[in-house]
Amino acid sequence: MKNINFLFVLLFGLSLGLTSCEDFLEENVKDQISVDYIYTTPAGLEVGVNALYNQMRFYNLPSGDNSDLWANVFFMVATDLGLHRTWNTPYGTGHNPQSFTGSKWIQGYKIIDRCSAIITSARSIPMDENAKRKLVAQARVIRGELYLDLKQMYGGILIDTIPTTPENINDPVEYKVASDADVYKLIDGDLDYAIANLPFKVDPGRYGQGVARHIRGKSALWQEDWAGAAAQFDAIINDGTHGLVPLVDVWGQNGNHKESLFTYQKDFLLGPIDDLAGGGGSWLSSVFTHRTYELNASELIQDVAYGGQALGWFYPNNYLKSLYDQTNDLRFKTYYYSDNYQDYKINVPGHPRFGQPITNPAIAAPNGNYRAWHWSLKKYHDTEKLPMTSNSYKDYMYYRLAETYLLASEAHHNLGNDTKALAYLNKVRRRGYTGNPESTVTTFDLTAWTLNNYLDESARELAFENNRWFLLKRLGLLVERQNLYFRSSPSGTLAGEVPLRMTPAMVNMPIPQSQIDLMGKPAGFNVGYN
């Protein structure tokens, strides 16, 4: 029985633009590849897997200003660490099944369907078994990752491993919420297969064993399987393929360094739209950056060093700022644009004070201006972005080892091993204070593992990296902490900051009403929204 065919329009051809394999693009380029070729031949199977990477890049790093971007930005900022100024308002009047973007639900199930098609068809394709297992393993990592994503986001979800085909697209449909046990059995089965069949060392932009274990460890944490989580995270750390890099390199221009477990690849020359191999221009480098060039036109013009074209839609908030030792923690100046005006120099050619600090914004704009001047995020800074565009083609690191260390710390604490838990926590912390990933300086070490110490260190290291919302939800703290600290300032002033209330139902994202209607409004979905 086909369970969720309402979500899909079967694609009878895949554009070559959906593959990220550059070598393939250099061969005989055709406009379309038949489904028969993809699902019956070794080369076609590889093309299909390549297409999954492009679809995942669109899922997690879409180009432009649209609901797909909002679907990702929401989880990066709508936590206890964020401040909203404009654009979409988290937890506002649009946070409901009728209005909230359905991008993650619809795109997620679309990609899952294609993963299942590859996994199923591979069984009958005659080819080298080792090569086949590696291709299938990549499809199964993606499917397991997406099901974990959907489970974390929506709570009650559907599961289905039968790919949509012309033969079953009109089969009777049964829509019901899958049990937690069934969901995690599917997730863990996919990831365990991938762990057994993928190496740690892979080419940039490919899923390896490190990613599979990292996601598998997260799944174990959601199930409170502390030993299982610790084993997965320890395996990544102890293997040695991945390692922490110097602090200045973490969010530098090269996203394909040793700390990266997985980085989405971007290339303007192979783009510049999402359907092509290079992908479209991402706006992340502009979304979180203040517009310093608007402070005083006689002193400042757009400069890539200061973020270039910026949007200033969301910022880190004062609560997050209070968590940093601003004197000694190097992350404060490495991960963020400074709000000390003396760090910004007059850059208008011919200005008599060229190269000297800009005029104090507190004097130039005494009421404050959150659009032009605010403490803002530098992690997605792109030194190669053209000054007058919001589009960035910088590679985007999505999973990194610092998070592995922090999650491993939590797992070992719950196993009663605070010695190891602190060692992992302080490994990341020492790098933050010294810049050196191999530092043995103990001056700023934490001496006790507490939940607050753990959450604060995780915030300092991983803020605005698509993990805080999920961490707080898993720990049952999301509503409480978001309501305490998340702020909105539509007036653009400190005095105009207000809290945005999150209701308990909002710990699960609203499934699009259009999808609920197509399912016949079955019970168990969108609980608390109706």
TrEMBL record:
One matching Pfam family: SusD_RagB
Coiled coil regions in record: none
Gene3D superfamilies on file: 1.25.40.390
Keyword Methyltransferase: no
Keyword terms, alphabetized: Cell outer membrane, Membrane, Signal
Limits of the RagB/SusD domain: 315-520
Main location: membrane
Top-level taxon in the UniProt lineage: Bacteria
Residues passing through the membrane, by range: none
Subcellular location field: Cell outer membrane
Protein family per UniProt: Belongs to the SusD family.
Protein's name according to its UniProt entry: RagB/SusD family nutrient uptake outer membrane protein
